[in-house]
């Protein structure tokens, strides 16, 4: 064998592990992680950005995303091991804790920091005052859910007793609320996006106030998992949180048009102009958290809201149900 050929073969053999490592890094060596989102919503834009921009993949994660449709179903899926991580309201972790769970559910990365619902009126109101709601029929959200609690908290702040001053309707499923309002139920409705923007575009209602602005900062939607999973899969959770933080920074830095373009693959049945309008509304009211830290002051505000709604047996310890170590490391890592 000639010297030139021998050198060429040695070079090829030396290069193979490098090539294989490169290939495995792009997909073959990825860790699978299953996310269950409580609903499909533009409110969770950072999550879809992390997916569409490849941030999870670059961290070596193969994400399987399912919509688990409702807080109860999402938590059941998490506790049963059907999913690894839940994106859901942080109040659900408190409910599990109140039931005396041996393996508590821990919040480790915040995604949204305000309520995501809006007050929609059937009639256009140029000069709205909250006192106008007194004596009206109000189509609210499910009792015990964070939207309803934030809604009631806001109403009480405005001097309205939800149980006495309104005809309060709470027995309509979340998915059917827009249709119920469109068909004539209620003078006012508490509604998520993009349904509020769609109703507005169709001329069937008008957005007149934001419950997110009025109820203050909250750890509204958070990634959480069982403490046992967190302990056994710390490296995976760190990679996951790194990707989330990158997406949050991306959303904070980019324009409404760019964000809408990034999330639109997950909302193929929604008009692009509606997507842009919703992103703009949430971005302007600072609903998207800019880092994954679950702030203690916001956690206490959440429990104030729950307590006001009569849904809190006892206050949950912040350090027991929140672990910010992964969020802190993600922020520090990004600085290097």
> Structural class given helices, strands, pairing?
alpha/beta
Q: Would you state the CATH class of the largest domain?
A: Alpha Beta
Which strand order spans the largest sheet, edge to edge or round the barrel? Answer: 2-1-3-10-4
Number of helical stretches of at least 4 residues = 16
What about the largest sheet?
5 strands, mixed
The rounded Rg comes to 23 Å
Describe this structure in words.
The protein has 336 residues and is an alpha/beta fold. The protein folds into 2 domains: 28-114 and 218-335, Periplasmic binding protein-like II (D-Maltodextrin-Binding Protein, domain 2, 3-Layer(aba) Sandwich), CATH 3.40.190.10; 117-215, D-Maltodextrin-Binding Protein, domain 2, CATH 3.40.190.10. Helices cover 48% and strands 16% of the residues. The chain contains 16 helices and 10 strands. The strands form 2 sheets. The protein has a 5-stranded mixed β-sheet, sandwiched between helices. The chain has a 5-stranded mixed β-sheet with strand order 7-6-8-5-9, sandwiched between helices. Helix 6 links the parallel strand 6 (137-139) and strand 7 (167-169). The radius of gyration is 23 Å and the shape is globular. Residues 1-27 have low confidence and may be disordered. Residues 1-21 form the signal peptide. It comes from Paenibacillus oceani. This is ABC transporter substrate-binding protein. Pfam families: NMT1_2. It is found in: Periplasm.
Task: Considering the chains and any ligands shown, give keywords for the structure.
D-Maltodextrin-Binding Protein, domain 2; 336 residues; alpha/beta; 48% helix; globular; 16 helices; five-stranded mixed β-sheet; disordered N terminus; single chain; 2 domains; 10 strands; 16% strand
